[in-house]
Structures are given as C-alpha cells and as structure tokens.
Design brief:
It is built from ten helices and 15 strands. With 256 residues, it is of the alpha/beta class. It folds into two domains: 55 residues, Winged helix-like DNA-binding domain superfamily/Winged helix DNA-binding domain (Arc Repressor Mutant, subunit A), CATH 1.10.10.10; 182 residues, Rossmann fold, CATH 3.40.50. The strands form four sheets. A seven-stranded parallel beta sheet has the order 6-5-4-9-12-14-15, with helices on both faces. A three-stranded antiparallel beta sheet has the order 1-3-2. α5 crosses α6. The mean pLDDT is 89.
C-alpha cells in the first residue's frame, strides 16, 4: 500500500468520525478540492474507505482494514512503539503475541532475545520466528481469517486456556475512555480477552489514532491492562490510565 502522509491522516481521521466531507478535508489540509478528490479516490480504490456523496465514510464498525493494508499504516510510529516495548521483555520469558500489525513489529524486535517461548495465533508473527531455532514457537489451532492472517474460534481459546504466560502482548481495534479496549470482531475480542485472563502481565501496544476509533466489540476495561506502550496521549488520557493503574510508556520518552 502506498499512502502519502496526508492520505494516512485522512484514513486515521475517518476511522474516528465515521464520515468526512470533501469541504471539511479541503479546509483541514489547506489544499484544493481536486487534490482531496484524488486522495479520496486512491483510498477508495484500495478499499480502505467508502465513497459517499460529497465525501467518504468508514467501512464498518465490524470490519477492520485488511492486514496487508494496515501493515504500512503509521509504520514508523509502530516501529518506535515496538522498540520501546521489546526492552520490557526479559530473556527466557513465555510470551503470547496476539492479533494485529503492531504486534508484528514487536515480534521483529524480539528476534534477538534468548530462550523465549513464544505462543501466538498470529501467522505473520509465527513466520517471523520461523528461521530462529533458538526461540520456541507454538501456534494455536483455530479458524483462519484470510484477510487478517490469524486464527480465531473455540480451538484458539481452548489452546490459550491451557497456559499461564509471563507476558501477553495485545493490539486493539480501538480505545474508548469509558469501555476501554475494543476490537472489530467479537471473535478477535474473545481471543484478546483470553490472553488477558491467562497472562501474568498484559502489555497493550497501539498508536494514538486508536482513541475514538469506532470498533464495536468490547475486550476489557483498562483495569485489565498492566502496561500501555504508545506514541502519544492527552493529559486526560494519561489521568484515566493512572486511575486504572496502567503503567504508561511513550515511544519518545521514559516510563511514567
């Protein structure tokens, strides 16, 4: 996927507000309507947004962008988050790496760790470790979601329930100040909830654009998260996390 910075900003924005008019986008980015229409056409051709009369709309609160398209969205931010998170994981730990592209970036940063025991339902994560014999990898069973390169369903949940991991690392579809961690599909929400319930320490990894995103399936309140690694939070979000005893690490600063 080839998006310029403005197109990435448009995509992040529409995921938070459902609908954006051409006029609103022209005013926000201070470019011509023709330029915005080219951006909108490009996003629609990639099946990242829906064209509506006079603007664009979110695909669905029950449908995330396919994995291959999400992979490069906010890639630099995800890379820095992953670097910050990986240093929190000691050698020799058991780690469940869940669904999502940010988790994939984390997996790449863990490749140099020693004696890790990695568990995952994320097939891309499994592939990242496939050439590193020193790291043990166990992949869940389950139903393959082709667009998202992961496994979900009762077999996945039964696998997770056999273990108690040192660390559970999860991404999310959205963050809500009242409801906490959200995902797009109830099945992926069930997997993330099982990881939370069967891990000693939960680390949530996602970028700031997930706040306010219209995902529909509830995973867990912020009380279920021990540590949140992200790029940026508002003062209000920082206060909310502190009230829920969530440790916060920003990718550009020290832990707070």
């Amino acid at each position: 996927m080839n998006l310029n910075e403005r197109q990435s900003d448009i995509l992040n924005w529409v995921q938070q507000v459902d609908y954006l008019s051409i006029e609103t986008l022209v005013e926000r980015f201070d470019v011509s309507a023709q330029t915005i229409r080219k951006d909108v056409n490009h996003l629609a051709q990639l099946h990242l947004v829906r064209r509506q009369h006079g603007g664009i709309a979110l695909l669905s609160t029950a449908e995330n962008i396919p994995f291959d398209d999400r992979h490069y969205l906010n890639g630099d931010i995800k890379q820095r988050i992953a670097e910050k998170l990986a240093v929190q994981i000691p050698d020799g730990a058991s780690v469940f790496l869940g669904i999502g592209t940010t988790v994939e970036y984390v997996a790449k940063q863990l490749q140099q760790h020693k004696d890790l025991k990695v568990f995952t339902n994320n097939l891309t994560v499994a592939g990242i470790f496939s050439t590193i014999p020193a790291i043990q990898v166990r992949v869940t069973g389950g139903t393959l979601r082709h667009l998202h390169h992961d496994l979900v369903g009762e077999d996945t949940l039964q696998f997770i329930r056999q273990f108690y991991f040192d660390f559970g690392i999860i991404g999310c579809g959205g963050l809500d100040e009242s409801m906490g961690v959200l995902d797009f599909d109830p099945e992926e929400a069930l997997v993330s909830r099982a990881i939370i319930e069967h891990s000693r320490y939960i680390i949530l990894a996602c970028d700031r654009h997930k706040w306010g995103r219209k995902a529909m399936a509830c995973v867990k309140s912020f009380e279920g998260v021990d540590h949140f690694v992200t790029d940026e939070v508002t003062p209000e979000q920082s206060t909310l996390l502190a009230k829920n005893n969530v440790k916060l690490t920003l990718s550009s600063s020290h832990d707070v």
